[in-house]
Structures are given as C-alpha cells and as structure tokens.
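[Discussion] Sanity-checking designs against the backbone

I'm trying to build intuition for which residues belong where. Below is a structure token string of 210 positions. I'd appreciate it if someone posts a full sequence so I can compare it with mine line by line.
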C-alpha cells in the first residue's frame, strides 16, 4: 500500500512538442470499444462513477456563461460579430472545475466528501486544464504571432551554437506559467525593481503547489 497521502500526475514534455492525449478506451455493452479524449463530456463521470453516480456531464467548449444569449438567424456581418462575442462568453475549463469544487446548495455533497478519490479528481482535472491550454497554444501559434519569437535572440539566450537548434516548432508565450519566457519576464521584472529600489538585503525563494 502507498505510504503517502499525496496524489501526483506526470505530464510528459514541456509543451514544445505535440503529445498524444490519454488513451481512454470504453467498453460498450455491445462488446465494442470506443476511444475518447480526456476532454470528452462524459470522461469524468465515466472515470469516477462513485463521485458522479448520476452520470453528470462534464466540461465541453460550448457552455455559455449565465445570462449570455446567442442570436440565430443573423446576417453574415452580424453573425461574425456575434461569433466574436461568443468566444469571450464561454465557460473555460478552469472556471468549470472551480465551480464544481465549491459547495452548491443545488448539488449534492458526494464530490466534497470524496476524500482521496476527490484528491485524485482534482489532480486529474488540473492535468486536463494544463493539457487543454497547451493544446490551444499548439494549434493557435499564428494567432499568438509565434513567428516573431523564432529568431537569433532566442538562440543566443538559449546558448545555441548550431543552426539546427534554431527555430522551435511550438512557442510558449510568457502568459503560460513556468514557461521559459514566463521565467525570463519575472527575472526582468525583479531586476527592474532592484534597479529602482536598490539591491535587496535578502533573496527568498519558495514553491507553491497549485
């Protein structure tokens, strides 16, 4: 039996390369098999039947925020405007799981009293959020203007001496936590503070378990 109360998840890679999703295979009553993603609407209910005995649907990208109404039957010009507004009105995966982990008067308390199984559910949800974020960054490199990052400055910063190492396929922006650019940006902010306020008397580091 394990001797620790911690539950961890190993995420392969740093996001710079495409990583296949979880290999989730369902066995139907007819005897056939079906492969689904961890982003499937029924993944959590099928994975944790004790926490979701009624098979509640999980997160999917078409959940609208409360009070948002999308008009149908619009002309092409207004339809594009409505679609643009809709992109900012959907519930994100982090918001969905953040809501599910709070006590709701209209919901049961099975999830809140899941003990170690609830702990595993939280870690699994966090891993799914990170994988979904990495997938979005991987599929929207043009929107993020990643081509501007691929240059000699990146190669010099990474101490690359060979031309074959220049040009990374997937660029993680500074907005993604623990990415190289996120760390460099924090370092530059810290140096700017030191330049303005003077040298620090103590240098304290700490880690945080998300």
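Best answer:
Here's mine. Compare freely.
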């Amino acid at each position: 039996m394990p001797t620790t109360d911690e539950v961890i998840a190993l995420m392969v890679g740093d996001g710079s390369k495409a990583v296949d999703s979880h290999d989730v295979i369902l066995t139907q009553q007819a005897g056939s098999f079906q492969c689904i993603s961890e982003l499937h609407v029924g993944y959590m209910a099928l994975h944790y039947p004790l926490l979701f005995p009624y098979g509640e649907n999980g997160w999917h990208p078409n959940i609208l925020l409360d009070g948002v109404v999308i008009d149908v039957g619009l002309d092409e010009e207004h339809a594009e405007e409505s679609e643009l507004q809709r992109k900012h009105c959907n519930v994100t995966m982090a918001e969905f799981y953040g809501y599910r982990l709070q006590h709701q008067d209209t919901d049961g308390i099975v999830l809140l009293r899941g003990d170690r199984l609830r702990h595993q559910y939280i870690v699994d949800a966090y891993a799914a959020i990170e994988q979904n974020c990495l997938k979005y960054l991987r599929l929207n490199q043009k929107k993020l203007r990643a081509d501007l990052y691929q240059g000699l400055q990146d190669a010099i910063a990474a101490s690359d001496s060979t031309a074959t190492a220049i040009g990374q396929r997937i660029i993680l922006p500074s907005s993604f936590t623990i990415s190289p650019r996120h760390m460099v940006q924090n370092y530059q902010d810290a140096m700017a503070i030191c330049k303005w306020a003077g040298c620090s008397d103590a240098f304290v580091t700490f880690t945080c378990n998300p």
